[in-house]
Design goal:
- The structure is a single chain.
- The chain is mainly beta.
- It is about 15% helix and about 40% strand.
- The chain contains three helices and eleven strands; from the N terminus they run E-E-H-E-E-E-E-E-H-H-E-E-E-E.
Length: about 140
């Protein structure tokens, strides 16, 4: 699986539907071809570029375990999960509303994002991975 170089910074790791909603979500999907491939997408707003690393999951929607610090599990409702710059997320009313529940990780230097491999693993550099090859229990949800 090919890795994707991603800039340093604070990122919210989440299903994007928990970060953006309504017209804002629809506009993002339209501008980025519905995030149809596992990739790095660049969102341009107000002269700034925001790098979003996004991948589909192995089994679509559900709850997935991780080995990220704190070992949270992640809910997925649109079949994808990714890392979104915190600054971009906090521009969104939904991102601000859910800020206390967000899983945030700060990457001190450029990092490598690896989309879902054939075992269902999505890697977020040295921070860890989300394992989408099998479902976690809903009660394990820690995000």
């Amino acid at each position: 699986m090919e890795t994707i170089k991603t800039p340093a910074g604070k990122y919210a790791i989440s299903d994007p539907c928990y970060l953006f909603e309504g017209d804002e979500w629809d506009d993002l999907l339209e501008r980025h071809a519905e995030f149809a491939c596992d990739n790095l997408f660049i969102e341009k707003q107000d002269g700034k570029e925001y790098h979003m690393a996004i991948s589909g999951t192995a089994y679509g929607d559900g709850y997935y375990a991780s080995d990220l610090p704190g070992s949270p599990s992640f809910a997925v409702d649109v079949g994808m999960i990714g890392a979104f710059p915190l600054e971009l997320v906090l521009r969104s009313p939904r991102g601000r509303q859910n800020q206390q529940e967000l899983y945030i990780h700060e990457f001190k230097s450029e990092w490598e994002f690896t989309p879902c491999d054939n075992q269902g693993v999505i890697r977020f550099g040295d921070a860890g991975a989300i394992h989408t090859g099998e479902m976690a229990q809903e009660t394990d949800k820690g995000d």
